[in-house]
Amino acid sequence: MNLPHFEIVLTKGHFLYALSHAKAAMKNITLIPGETHYFFLQEIAKVFHQDFNELQRIYNLRSPYNDGVILADTYSLPYHASPEFIIDYLITQSLKTHEDLSYKLLGHYNQEEWFKIIAKASIIQKEAANVAEMPIVSSVIDNRIAKNMPLQMDGSLNYGKFSHTRITPERIRNDTSEFNTYKYNGIPKTASGSVSIDAIKAAIYPTHTNYLYFMRNKNGLHDFTQTYQEHVKNIKRVKN
């Protein structure tokens, strides 16, 4: 007996939902706050036995911005997922969360405006020693911009493949990218890495201070100061 042929067509959204909820072998992958997509894709390639260059190629095609799009979080993915699915899932899920957060925190969503906030949050993420310091670092960024001072923050230079590279005077002299906040005023147009929700909140809601400088102390936290003279004293205190 010839049975009629039926073709089921799933939308992309339904496909992602069905695949992510299927009874397949799943594996978790975590993007830690501050890490760049460059190293995250390397970790994905290792865990899921994928080709890094292919993941990078698809990421470059799909992602609206170079970094900061995939939010710091733990993601559960099918173990045998294709490179296309992995990148599509991570970006689609993250962009939805970005939009939801924007509506929650700002009351509206404008992608260009929002990712300017993400660029600021990415510096806060790398510079703050803990969550409590984040709104204070955010205030330093705003205060320096208000005075037309360069941010001069090492964290912005830990972008892309330089995520784990120590920032040296030579690096500061030679790096001509937008991320060199020693050479260029303001916040880079692009995020320098992944961000947490805490860093986003700090970028939007800075503490009101007069601080212009901060220096990591011997306890691993930062001493914040209003004047360069105070800042120099803190530098000497750490070196002695």
- Alpha-carbon Rg, integer: 21 Å
Order of adjacent strands in the largest pleated sheet = 1-2
Terminal residue distance: 90 Å
Number of domains: 1
Shape designation: globular
Major β-sheet annotation: 2 strands, antiparallel
Please report which band the strand proportion falls in: under 5%, 5-15%, 15-25%, 25-35%, 35-45% or over 45%.
5-15%
How would you state the average pLDDT, rounded? 91
Element string (H = helix, E = strand): HEHHEHHHHHEEH
- Assembly state: single chain
Q: Helix amount, in percent?
A: 40-55%
Poorly predicted runs of 5 or more residues: 1-10
- Structural class assignment: mainly alpha
Summed up, the helix count is 9
Explain what this protein looks like in three dimensions.
- The chain has one domain (1-209).
- The N and C termini lie far apart (90 Å).
- Helices cover 46% and strands 8% of the residues.
- Residues 1-10 have low confidence and may be disordered.
- It is mostly helical and 240 residues long.
- It comes from Helicobacter didelphidarum.
- GO terms for molecular function: lyase activity.
- InterPro entries: MLTG-like.
Could you outline the blueprint of secondary structure elements for this entry?
Blueprint: H1 12-20, E1 26-31, H2 37-47, H3 52-62, E2 73-78, H4 83-106, H5 111-127, H6 134-146, H7 169-174, H8 197-204, E3 213-216, E4 222-225, H9 228-239
Antiparallel strand pairs: 1-2, 3-4
